[in-house]
Amino acid sequence: MADSERSMATIKDVAVRAGVSVATVSNALNGKPNVGSAARRKVLDAAKTLGYRPHRAAQAMRTGRTRAIGLVLPDLTNPFFSQLAQAVESKARRLGLLACLIDSQNAADAELEGLSLLAQHGVDGIIWCPVGARLPRLLGALDRPIVLIDRPRPGFSVVHANNAMGGRLLAQHALQNGHSRVGLLCGPRNVQSAQQRRHGFVSAFPDRIQIAWEVRVGFDGILPREAREALLRRRGATLVVAGNDLIAISAMRFLHEHDVQVPADVSIVGFDDISWARIVTPRLTTIAQPLGAIGTRSVELLHERMSGAQAQNPALMLDVSLVERDSVRSI
Amino acid sequence: MADSERSMATIKDVAVRAGVSVATVSNALNGKPNVGSAARRKVLDAAKTLGYRPHRAAQAMRTGRTRAIGLVLPDLTNPFFSQLAQAVESKARRLGLLACLIDSQNAADAELEGLSLLAQHGVDGIIWCPVGARLPRLLGALDRPIVLIDRPRPGFSVVHANNAMGGRLLAQHALQNGHSRVGLLCGPRNVQSAQQRRHGFVSAFPDRIQIAWEVRVGFDGILPREAREALLRRRGATLVVAGNDLIAISAMRFLHEHDVQVPADVSIVGFDDISWARIVTPRLTTIAQPLGAIGTRSVELLHERMSGAQAQNPALMLDVSLVERDSVRSI
DNA sequence: GCAATTGAGTTAAACGTTTCGCTCACAAGG
DNA sequence: CCTTGTGAGCGAAACGTTTAACTCAATTGC
User: Which SS3 state, helix, strand or coil, does residue A290 take?
Assistant: First the structure.
């Protein structure tokens, strides 16, 4: 009914309408104790009828906090990250935080640029899955809480899945299905999670599982010549263990094109349980990471840290689980 | 070498180091004409050695512009949108704009909440793929440039692919391969792009292609009972035309589970050419949308609009193209 | 009954910019 | 010589908050 809503009400407007000073309005709105119940009520009413929303930039300037966080990812196109992003954004929003996105497309310089953009905008904290092995020095300079995701770096807190456990689970599953000679399509050497998956797998039953061959592949699933050759020859491997689902699916596709049947001729397992794992043919047996939980917990962790909690750099490791589907044959 | 870099230099610091007033620093940095070349040089030097970066919140407060934009999407998990998001973020960053993400997960209320969060943070503009058929009234209230993506709404500018053309291309392709009786797995009724694809297809050769059956499916590719039944009976259809790739791939998967071969027993085509279209088995014949261009152009359009260009609400329609792969058989 | 304490509210400064209006020196025009 | 104009630069206000310091009255403690 009223003339409200025009061009954003300010705290001053609320103050005059409630008949108190701006300071009181601010105190009332922020739940400070030094304001009586009568005044508080008037302020709240006035604020509501005016549709008052605090001006974030002004708040930011005064308090130094923006209530925004950065989310820096290497490749949104990878379902692993898009699911993560979804979880992060959703949780952030529930906490009243705005999620600002940087997609570095796996380029270290773009990442740096993005980080600096975030710093400039004064985000209160950053959730980050770093692309480079070594964290840029800029880091010290940007001086806000950081929570890494999926990829630990010394001295930083991280939320990630128990990759080694996933590797062990896979090894166990291989054995149970009679596979004792396997090929490895590991992820990149400089990505720690790839290493841990590999290590979990090979060290689980070193005497009962032989590694027939092993080649490194990018997490984007593009198969280099070497990998393609290995897949064709196989050298007695009855199971190929891929560094992630993207790689596994690429491999399945490649095998299919060359008339080798999965799982009849060779079995295959992935890692991540991206949503496509259950859609491809055959449906992929893989390790499910708690993607939602990783996203959620990382925001929670960051949020605590932003609210002044001491940095004890915990590494939060979440359990993974085996999802049996159709891509491994029992022999 | 110097003591610089400590806790963010302000414009004042630059001023004293350059031996001029803050006003002059501001003018120099913003390329205003009323500053001599000597002074300008001194300011630039000082700014560089101090590593000065303007405080965005302060700027925002004074000018009312944040140099941030909102990106509101229905489902990041859908590769269509994640590719779009990647393009948008990348282009935005190149323009010095920060992209703030909202993923409504197809929920109208979450979308609204997100929009209001963006408004509160004062983003300068919004790129938006709306989930509801009808735009919420809040819209007028948020009062900033908006560019819609993929889903036109009366009175708003939009960047989208020529969906009708895609439909026609598909019809043509069907005919060329001898399919004259088809089943339709259209997208949701309330999504305009779905309608246009459908319309383009059915109206291309109304007398030469018969629609054997037709069922509506969500764009997330989850097949309702009705769709599953249709896929099994088929009623003489030799080709099924899916509303998007997700639906097509789900359908292929479902068919495969029920031992009907694609494309031997039935052909199938999709729409979007998401990255998975070339990975599934068989590789999917589909319509490629220029996802990168859509993202890029929408940011450009928004940017113009933000810089005061008159709102002439152009609907930017980009051409699509047919990508022939392995999922349709010639009969 | 008086000092001390408390509760409720106010004033004003500060955050880091941009920008309006001003001054000042100098040049040009008559 | 005086006016007018111009280029370069400065001072200060303003943007919308939060918060420290303060006032003033009412209440408490003795």
Answer: coil
B220 and B249 in contact (C-beta within 8 Å)?
Answer: no
Q: What single DSSP character describes residue A151?
A: S
d(CA B75, CA A267): 33
Separation in Å: C16 C1' and B91 CA: 28
Distance linking the first and last C-alpha atoms of chain B: 75
Distance CA A203, CA A63 (A): 51
Interface contact A98-B103, CB threshold 8 A: no
- CB contact (8 A) between residue A100 and residue B68: yes
Query: Over the stretch B140-153, which tens digit does the pLDDT of each residue have?
Result: 667 899 999 998 88
| Helix, coil or strand: residue B326 | coil
High-pLDDT (> 90) share of chain B, %: 77
| Closest C-alpha among B251, B242, B254, B252 to residue B286 | B242
Q: Which nucleotide is nearest to B29 (CA to C1')?
A: C18
User: Are A81 and A129 spatial neighbours (Cβ–Cβ below 8 Å)?
Assistant: yes
Q: What is the pLDDT of residues A1-38, one digit of tens each?
A: 333 344 678 999 999 999 999 999 999 999 888 888 88
pTM: 0.88
Q: Which residues pair with A50 in a beta bridge?
A: none
Rounded to a whole number of angstroms, the CA Rg of chain A reads 26
